[in-house]
Amino acid sequence: MSIVILVGGPSSQGSAEHRYLVQAFLDRFGDSVAKILTTNPPQRSLLTKVKRTLKRGQYRERVARALYKKPYGPDPSELQSNLFPEDAPEQMPGGDRVVCVDSHNSADCELLLQQLKPKVIVVYGTAIIREHIFSQASIVTLNMHTGLSPYYRGDSTLFWPVYFNDPEHLGVTVHKIAANVDGGDIVYTGKVTYEPGDSEAALFAKGVKIGSELYLQAVQEALDNTIVYHPQDLSIGQEFRWIHRTVAAEKKVLEMLDKWSKKPT
Q1: Tell me, what's the pLDDT at 123?
Q2: Are 206 and 191 in contact (CB under 8 A)?
Q3: Which of these, 26, 73, 102, 211, has the minimum number of CB atoms within 10 Å of its CB?
Q4: What CA–CA distance (Å, rounded) separates 158 from 143?
Q5: Is 98 left (phi over 0), alpha (psi -120 to 50) or beta?
């Protein structure tokens, strides 16, 4: 077996984008995909949740988010319909190859990788992967970042180019996993092109589709020993966290998308 996939999401079944990528790898590599490792979000007690809330602060933004009553991130149902126009899977593809671990950085995940001895580890949509995990691949551990590195790194990176009126930097990146977030050597980048009427979900779906194709190519080249890496210049661009994506920022992005849709082509 050559490939192990580490995939995130709100549950062990992932979201539409995670299931799309996993299915693409199963279609391309078949039995060479040894395992698909998923995880469930950590279950925290009410007391722990209260302590975390008090520590993080951001009270005004939390009130604004509660009043806004819209989902954080691209609309899930719209994203799913863009990725799966028909017969969207409700479960993670892969059957008995899907294994839910405590976390992707946990001891049980590390032990499983030591047993599987993958040549390539494929990462998408997880928490930050630590070195004791990404070093388990004999060739390389790769990640697909739905943003154009090094310009937009971190969270919501097909959102921020819209916010900054920067359509030229809508894109996706396939890169080597490194200790710094989205900072590993680049294998491929792909351009996401805005079309009038595109929502954030439509742009994100385009990024997932384009990125998945590039990801398949990168993994094949890694297995063929023809992969080429390009160092990033991390002195340019920005890194974003989820706390930067405020309700005010989301409203501005909706306004920008409306303006873009009215620009003459």
Answers
A1: 98
A2: no
A3: 102
A4: 16
A5: beta
CATH topology of domain 3-262: Rossmann fold (3.40.50)
Can you give the C-alpha Rg of the chain in angstroms?
A: 19
C-beta of residue 99 within 8 angstroms of C-beta of residue 36: yes
- Band (98; pLDDT cuts 50, 70, 90): very high
- The DSSP output letter for 29 is H
Q: In this structure, are residues 231 and 178 in contact, taking their beta carbons and an 8 Å threshold?
A: no
- Which ranges constitute the DSSP H helices of 57-157? 59-68, 76-83, 107-116, 131-134
Average pLDDT over residues 109-136: 97
Rounded Cα gap, residues 107 and 238, in angstroms: 32
Tell me the pLDDT tens digit for each residue of 182-195: 679 999 999 999 99
Contact 182, 175 (CB under 8 A): yes
The CA distances from residue 90 to 13, 25, 32, 101, in Å, are 8, 17, 23, 19
Tokens of 232: 């990033």
In order, the DSSP letters of 129-196 are PPHHHHTT-SSEEEEEESS-TTTEEESSTTTHHHHTT-GGG-EEEEEE--SSTT-SPEEEEEEPPP-T
At residue 65 the predicted structure's pLDDT band, cuts being 50, 70 and 90, is confident
DSSP type of residue 13: T
Mean of pLDDT values over 34-43: 88
CA distance 15 to 99: 16
Residue 145 has which token pair? 């970042």
Q: What is the pTM of this model?
A: 0.90
> For the chain, what's the residue count?
265
